[in-house]
Queue: 2 jobs
Job 1
Amino acid sequence: MSIGTSLIVLLAAILHASWNALLRGGGDRLWSMTIMCLAIALACAVMVPFVPIPTTASWGCVALSALLHTGYNLFLVRTYRQGDLGQTYPIARGASPLLVSLGAAIFARELPGVLNLAGVLLVSGGIIALAFQGSTIGRQTLLFALGTGCFIGAYSVTDGIGARLSGSPVGYTVWMCLWWGLLAPTTYVLLRDVRSLLRGRRETLMAAGGGLASLLAYGIVIVAMARGAMGPVSALRETSVVFAALIGRFFLHERLSRYRITACLVVAVGAVLIGHAG
């Protein structure tokens, strides 16, 4: 992976951590996630006339990924209901680089090199270590966090393959995110009602801003996975947990101990290995 690609994916990691912190800090996370997705859908609808239509071969991936993202939304909201950002976020993200590497090997015949594999293992190990620092986590919260990680792994591999088949990673991203963005409010209405979507202007704009950050962050990742190995790209994206830990400390007043700092350094070393693997 080139230095330029690595830096762009790290930018995506910062954006990703930011919108997760916004979601975790909100009072009604299902509503926040729904408004984020509505903003994504509106932005993609505006872009649709200006991007190529994905090839027919990729439309199955578009549909599957939109469904997987909807499941991810529901699991992530449930995960954040009880757990701290600094604890649940690493569990949800930590397993996904290994799952993506495994999925890429099985479905795309993509075997990582030694440095890439070492980097993926260090990133995943450091991420998971961030979650376990003497404090306990409820069984249900743990299961939902791990389930979230499985959804992340599944949609990442689906999008990596779909973007390669599409003929246009940008076009694929816009169309997939459009359908994902439309499924979220549909799910919300089924669980609640339409009227409760209407909230204050400031609250709505903040959630919408988080959605646009999410769209940009994941769009960068899809383009990177179309051009490079999925496992290392996924691992580099998950360095967002380092930024999430810092955001949790300074903005959500969560504890950042020496143990967590050490785990963050392990993640950073893994990211450096991936960046130098070429």
Note: The chain has one domain: 3-276.
Job 2
Amino acid sequence: MTFGLFLQHLTNALSLGSLYALIAIGYTMVYGILRLINFAHGEIFMLGGYIAFYAVTLFFMPWGAAYIVALGLTGIFGIGLERVAYHPLRHSPKISIMISAVGASFLMQNLAIVIFGGRPKGFIVPQVFDRVIMIGHVSVMNVSLIIPIITGTLLVILQIVVHKTKTGMAMRAVSTDLRAARLMGIDVNKIVMFTFGTGSVLAAIGGVMWALKYPQLNPGMGLIPGLKCFIAAVIGGIGNISGAVLGGLLLGFIEIMIIAALPTLTGYRDAFAFILLIIVLLVKPSGLLGKHQIEKV
């Protein structure tokens, strides 16, 4: 492999890993607050892409406005999903809320088929994201460079919110002990809604960026990326935002680099995530940056 080709694969790996990290943050935020795996997170990712698509094609919005509308509506949908599917079961056994999450995922997939149709749709990529940048003798799509920048910027903003604001302090308190936080006067419902809304907006950003990089939409597009991003969150230490980013980047690099070195394994690329998950859990069950915690009953 030449240096130029290696650099191209490295850029693709960084781009894919950044997408995984962006979506994995939503998983880890919700789990950190409620100890809930939101299995419908992949479908929220899919919804963000479709809303942006129809805002441009059906309502003829400029692409910038369409993307902002997609983020806002997806965030509102995420909050609504929590209120309808998860809030009534908050004090039920964990298995009940997990079943509700799985049910919400399948319901959203099938509703998407009914509403949007089962045929794949080509996503319109603005010219600004469709340019090729030459780095020496290596050609790189500029969207592959924009994605890591967006992910890094959002991670910095999120860390500031979590560690430097009163809302972030309340989030950390709820994450540590929900009942004690309620006794201290924290509005737990508002914190949970903020967490779901933020996680859903991040998923929508990931969905739009994914559609810009791989310009095709279909109702099942969130299934495999959603599973991989859940795996990335677990690998990094679910409940830890930095761990989710580390897990996403690690997963993206391993997936791209193995395929680059061994092209015959392309058909098995989705299996790499599960193999990595098994290895990490055998060595460090709490994840790379996770801490061992006793499950509260």
Note: The chain has a mean pLDDT of 90.
